[in-house]
Design a protein that fits this description.
Glycerol-3-phosphate (1)-acyltransferase, seven-stranded mixed beta sheet, 7 helices, about 20% strand
């Protein structure tokens, strides 16, 4: 039975889902508490936090696991965009105790309203949160990929809100690449970990289609750079299936 099938079966049971959420949250705490972490180029995040300006924290779906612990580094409200599916609710319940709030929906393209899956309400909520100085976390390739390919939704949000995008990634010396669509990185306890930040990306309000595509490509490159740099900082090859 594949991991996705197993996860879906858990999701169908509320009791099993609650148990999964508890253990996911506990696992994140254990990994963070037992590992040694470096924060590389943290000044990018620090400057945005100190400015009081709302910003978008972007990271690849495969680097989702340890993002919740960053909540402890700021007094700002932190929101995360999650899907309306039950598996999204399991993740939300797992990291909610860290102080993260949630916006449900998708980063849909405003021009494709016929395919909207809660995208318009979610977009409005994210813009409102950013205008109030909050941090909004997004996975530009989630929830279904292609892996490490940025979609335009996060760029549209930056354009409409005026908020900068902060690309970042984490890695861990010990852990495994799961057999999921994104080769999800499951960090191991008692490892050496690293968080890497890249320079913020801003999208002008009057950006045209060419500018939007250029920003999308810039974000994709920044996220890939952050991921690869984090891997190398802990001694992990970006192409390794498992270390530890």
């Amino acid at each position: 039975m594949g991991l996705r099938t197993f996860f879906r079966r858990i999701a169908q049971s509320r009791t099993a889902g609650a148990g999964a959420s508890f253990f996911i949250g506990l696992y994140i705490r254990i990994v963070f508490a037992t590992s040694r972490w470096d924060f590389i180029e943290r000044e990018h995040a620090d400057r945005l936090v100190e400015s009081g300006e709302g910003f978008i924290a972007a990271f690849w779906h495969q680097r989702l696991l340890m993002g919740a612990v960053i909540r402890r580094k700021t007094e700002r409200r932190v929101f995360m965009l999650i899907s309306n599916h039950r598996d999204g609710e399991i993740i939300a319940d797992a990291v909610r105790p860290f102080g993260i709030e949630f916006i449900r929906g998708s980063a849909a393209n405003p021009k494709k309203t016929h395919k909207d899956k809660g995208g318009a309400p979610a977009l409005a909520q994210m813009i409102a949160a950013l205008e109030e100085g909050a941090i909004v976390g997004m996975t530009p390739d989630g929830p279904r990929g292609p892996s490490r390919r940025a979609q335009a939704g996060v760029i549209r949000l930056a354009q409409l809100s005026g908020a900068p995008i902060l690309p970042g990634a984490y890695s861990s010396s010990g852990g495994w690449r799961l057999r999921t669509w994104d080769r999800f990185l499951l960090a191991a306890p008692f490892s050496r970990g690293a968080f890497v930040g890249e320079a913020p990306i801003r999208v002008p309000s009057d950006a045209g289609p060419g500018d939007i595509e250029a920003a999308r490509i810039a974000l994709e490159r920044a996220l890939n750079s952050a991921s690869d740099r984090a891997d190398r900082a802990v001694g992990r090859s970006p192409d390794d299936a498992a270390i530890g």
